[in-house]
Amino acid sequence: MADISGRYLITFNGEIYNYAELRDELSAAGASFRTHSDTEVVLAAYARWDAAALHRFRGMFAFAIWDAAERTLFAARDLFGEKPLYYAALGDGGLVLASEVKALIASGVVSADLDLAGVDAYLAFGYVPPSMSIYRAVRPLPPGHWMRWQGGRLALQRYWTPRMETRPIGLDEAAETLRLLLHQAVTRQMVADVPLGAFLSGGLDSTSIVAMMSDVTTRPVRTFSVGFGTEINELPYARAVARRYGTEHHEIDLGAPPVGELLEELAHVYDEPFADSSGLPTYLISKFARQHVKVVLSGDGGDEMFGGYNWYPILALSEKVAGSRIAWILLRAVSRAVREQMQALHLRSVAVGLSARWPDMWLRAAMNQVYLSSARRAELWGSRGRPAFDVAGHDAAGPDVEGLNRAFYFDLTTYLPGDILVKVDRASMAHGLETRAPFLDRDLAEFALSLPARLKTDDTGRTKIVLRRACERDWPDEVRSRPKQGFGAPYRRWLQRNDVRALVGRVFRPDGPLRTLLPGLPASPAGVTYETWTLLTLGLWLERWPRTT
Questions:
Q1: I want to staple 44 with a disulfide (CB 3.0 to 4.6 A). Which of 31, 120, 263, 397 is the partner?
Q2: φ, ψ at 19 (rounded to 5°)
Q3: How far is CA 185 from the centre of its chain?
């Protein structure tokens, strides 16, 4: 879209939820509009405020604006990386941008040389971190950044960063403010001129979103849930929420989906290696939901904002306890002997071990997410030698971020944009479904980041403390008392299916690209493990996409 003057031209992916208010402000300042779209508002905002316009936007976005008068390209990405943007700086000063890695490679002007450090990072985490790419020539514009290109020169600048500036506030006041901000975020994100619904897992986050949606609209909310028969089944919890709020509920029980066929599809959809097995059900529930709506709200971001993951209490305990490596070994030995009777001691021993081995909380959080150790990755690389990817030095928080906030920082800046948001964006957009995440609303997020860690989780095992106080009145009893269960998939069972075993045999073959890349690959996979799943998805990607090493 071009602006009225013809000077500015934009390509834009995303939504600006507060565009109506910005349009009124810009109109009062003299701007003219031909449409009622948020895209034209982005253009007018940039023309008036330049990069400062980014602080006025409440939404998810990736866009690029060409200034024909200055012959300058300006591009920007939202705070957390809900929408993707990749670029390649060419040797002649040129610049190529796209929403997908595959588009850059298809341009024919971007090298397909693998970034071996990016591969090693994938082997460590199961995804390529958001500051890296699987290709050497390709880079993502990081979340919360803008870039400007002019005359062959490229400059990047960070305009927003998660600030953990803890404010003095009590639980009741924090809960009341949180409730108001969540209601505001949901209200903003329900503005749409197309059918809208919600993903409903029956967990605390999605239940809170559906409750707020039901309060905003007089029509039944359309909700969508997925289950896997008896192995992983959240459908009863979702049904309880649907009954309470009278939603127009739709559910799909995947049972035994065609996993082998779907894994090959996902190698195309996730155009970088991606091992999160929940990408498969996300892909299928997105396809299912798109038959009914074009936009869904999700609970993504709630765990990272409010301390919802099971590992947070252990990390909190690791901050509290003190001990040496000897104490850790002794506690571990005692724990193993009486594990069933002394689970609390076991958790304490784990916490002591984490504290003793990795004194820095950020590194403790990072190593908690490493699936294949440095030593194991070195074995896989074999004679090639392991590339120089260092988990310890990867995008660490600065010294101003302290304590448990360093763990939150890792998940907000690495796990959330590298895994969770990639999973949802690629899976949903493959079916033309737009997903929105109210927990990532800027006003709500900045408030959440300012809260003391003790209002989110503690060393007694409590999680989402302030969210529970704010929203538990909205939850059915079944949801309020259910244990934490992430949105996962039965990948161990899937690895035993004949169609998946055939894929494993194919990618592990002696003359295959996976073995060429990783000469230390074992002759046969290491059983029904996450390592096998990770190597399988990498092998399928290598077969699907062009690459040189």
A1: 31
A2: -65, -30
A3: 19
Asked if 88 and 229 sit in the same domain, the reply is no
How many other CB atoms sit within 10 Å of the CB of residue 511? 6
Dist CA 181 CA 187 (whole Å): 10
Predicted TM-score (pTM) of the model is 0.92
In a domain, 520, yes or no: no
Residue 531: inside a domain: no
Single out the residue of 101, 99, 85, 90 nearest to residue 140, CA to CA: 85
The secondary structure of 200-213, three-state, reads CCCCHHHHHHHHHH
What token pair was written down for 425? Answer: 């964006």
What the block records as the tokens of 238 is: 């979702």
Residue 323 has phi, psi (to 5 degrees) of 180, 165
Residue 2 lies inside a defined structural domain of this protein: no
* Alpha-helix runs per DSSP H in 141-203: 171-189
Given 129, 158, 187, the domain boundary residue is 158
Range of the domain at 229: 171-307+409-480
Evaluate whether 491 touches 259 at the Cβ level (below 8 Å): no
Residue 426 contacts residue 433 (beta carbons within 8 Å): no
Helix, strand, coil shares of the chain, percent, nearest 5, are 50, 15, 40
In the chain, how many domains are there?
2
Q: Is the dihedral of CA 223, 228, 229, 235 positive or negative?
A: negative
Spatial separation of the C-alpha atoms in residues 205 and 178, rounded to whole Å: 13
Beta bridge partner(s), residue 61: 14
Token pair of 391, please? 């988990």
Within 10 angstroms of residue 411's Cβ, the number of other Cβ atoms is 25
Domain CATH number, residue 102 = 3.60.20.10
CA distance 303 to 408: 9
What is the full per-residue pLDDT of the chain (549 aa) written as tens digits?
999 999 999 999 999 999 999 999 999 999 999 999 999 999 999 999 999 999 999 999 999 999 999 999 999 999 999 999 999 999 999 999 999 999 999 999 999 999 999 999 999 999 999 999 999 999 999 999 999 999 999 999 999 999 887 889 999 999 999 999 999 999 999 998 888 999 999 999 999 999 999 999 999 999 999 987 766 678 999 999 999 999 999 999 887 789 999 999 999 999 999 999 999 999 999 999 999 999 999 999 999 999 999 889 988 888 877 443 444 444 444 344 433 343 555 566 677 777 777 888 888 888 888 999 999 999 999 999 999 898 887 888 888 898 899 999 999 999 999 999 999 999 999 999 999 999 999 999 999 999 999 999 998 889 999 999 999 999 998 888 776 665 668 899 999 999 999 999 999 999 999 999 999 999 889 889 999 999 999 999 999 998 887
- Same domain membership, residue 177 and residue 144: no
Q: Which helix (H) or strand (E) holds 268?
A: helix 259-269
242 assigned to some structural domain: yes
Residue 2, classed as helix, strand or coil, is: strand
> Any idea what DSSP says for residue 56?
G
Residue at 392: amino acid letter = A
∠ CA 441-444-445, nearest 5°, is 75
